[in-house]
Amino acid sequence: MELSGLQIFKYLPAAKKDENSNCKKCGCPTCMAFAIKLAKQNAKIENCPYVPNELKEIYEISCKQPQNIVEIQGLKIGGENVLYRHEKTFINKTAIAIIVDRSEINWQEKLKRIENFEITRVSETLKIDLVIFKNFETLPQLKNLRTISFDDFKKLPLKEIIDEKFSQTSQELIKIRKKAILEKDGNYAEPVYVYFKYTNDINTLCAKASYYLCKYANMLVFENFNEALISTLMTLRQNIFTDPQKPLQVESKIYEFNNPDENSLIFMTTNFALTFYAVANELESLPVPSYLIVTPAEGMSVLTAWSAEKFTAAMVAKTLKKFDFANKVKNRKIIIPGLLAHMKEELEEEISNAGLDFKIVVGTIEAFAINDFVKNLAISK
Ligand code: SF4
User: Fold this and answer.
1) 34: Cβ below 6 Å to ligand 1?
2) Of 83, 326, 343, 376, which is the most exposed, with the fewest CB atoms less than 10 Å away?
3) Residue limits of CATH 3.40.50.11600 in the chain
């Protein structure tokens, strides 16, 4: 386990109130400051001449990297430090590899589909991480994909678990990760991959692979290649392997959908990426063009931003002024998220105080309802 600053501090002179307390020889103003730096591994333990051997021993263990990192052509596998994402963050996302076996009848067609597979989600373009060629004398050359022979792959310092029974595989994965992280047991430091043999039962395969992706496979290797399966896993993976302390956000600006003009609909939301993409998908599929004003809210969703005072009437007025939006459009109605209905009057007042003449229309609570909302708007016009 990693040591906290407080746990380290208990061993230092200031905690024991001895004569060397806060002597500054380590370069820090206090023992507590040194303890905090040590906990973050931003200082050397030798810098304090009064560190007892007991602390040196437990600190050395706490600094040990619990899981090795294996690198394949820039693809990093392993190196995890925590059991749960919310404790810090997961480091290297679970890699997804596909086996292409020359003995398969349709291997060429399968390979073509693998090469063509690409999804874009939350501004990230996702492709297969690794293609493993089995039974090939010469490896086919692929553009933009990492490749390795099956024999070379098997030589990598990775632990293999062949998936047969879910209960067995899941327990094995949990045991290995706990041994590595909690006990820093070197026998369990190798990153782990789960190997899935070919199956026609894609639903069960998807359920099992999703579980192992969360707990605790560093890599998933499939004999199957199924676009729906891989898209599902990549979407799940993107959610699990984001830094919980850094919300996903998009740029705060005015987005255009279907070539809007000065009379087009105007929507507003915050720059939380998932909210943005949910709304953007709906606006793209509307039969009418529209604008989407995305306000800066440090990547927070609408209600969170409001409660944290990151979506305020003053900020909305400032955003409209910054983009000089009043001079770009004749439409004077801005549709805000339904969750912010209570802000209608406040927004209109602040916008008016800023010398702008926009009115506020309360929109839908959920993005999927935008289409019906717009139809009703057209009817009531
Ligand atoms: Fe405290 Fe730093 Fe002095 Fe050690 S060297 S006793 S940590 S102030």
Assistant:
1) yes
2) 376
3) 254-380
- Does the CB atom of residue 230 touch ligand 1 within 6 A? no
Does residue 22 line the site of ligand 1, with CB under 6 A?
yes
Q: What is the pTM of this model?
A: 0.68
How big is the chain, counted in residues?
381
The CATH number given to 254-380 is 3.40.50.11600
Q: Which residue of 9, 11, 48, 59 sits with most ligand 1 atoms within 8 Å of its CB, as the best mutation to test the pocket?
A: 48
- Residue 153 CA to residue 372 CA, distance in Å, equals 52
Q: Say whether domain 5-63 belongs to CATH 3.90.190.20.
A: no
Say if ligand 1 is within 6 A of residue 32 CB.
Answer: no
Q: How confident is the model at residue 241 (pLDDT cuts 50, 70, 90)?
A: confident
The C-alpha atoms of residue 159 and residue 190 are separated, in whole angstroms, by 6
pLDDT (tens digit, 9 = 90+) per residue, 42-73?
899 999 999 999 999 999 888 888 899 999 99
Please state the rounded mean pLDDT for residues 352-376. Answer: 93
Looking at the CA of residue 14, tell me the nearest atom of ligand 1: 1
Instruction: Say if ligand 1 is within 6 A of residue 44 CB.
Output: no
- Rounded average pLDDT over 259-285: 93
At 47 the pLDDT is 95
Tell me the two tokens of residue 58.
Answer: 């437990």
Binning pLDDT at 50, 70 and 90, where does residue 247 land? confident
pLDDT at 134: 97
What whole-number distance in Å separates Cα of residue 257 and Cα of residue 199? 42
120's tokens: 């874009």
Domain with CATH 3.20.20.20 in the chain: 69-240
Q: Which CATH class is domain 69-240?
A: alpha beta
Query: Going by CA atoms, what residue is nearest to atom 1 of ligand 1?
Result: 31
**Residue that the structure tokens 């810090």 belong to:** 88
Residues of the chain with CATH 1.10.15.40: 5-63
Judge if the beta carbon of residue 48 lies within 6 A of ligand 1: yes
pLDDT over 60 (residue 37): yes
Q: How far is CA 271 from CA 275, 296, 304, 331, 362, in A?
A: 7, 6, 12, 23, 19
State whether the beta carbon of 254 lies less than 6 angstroms from ligand 1: no
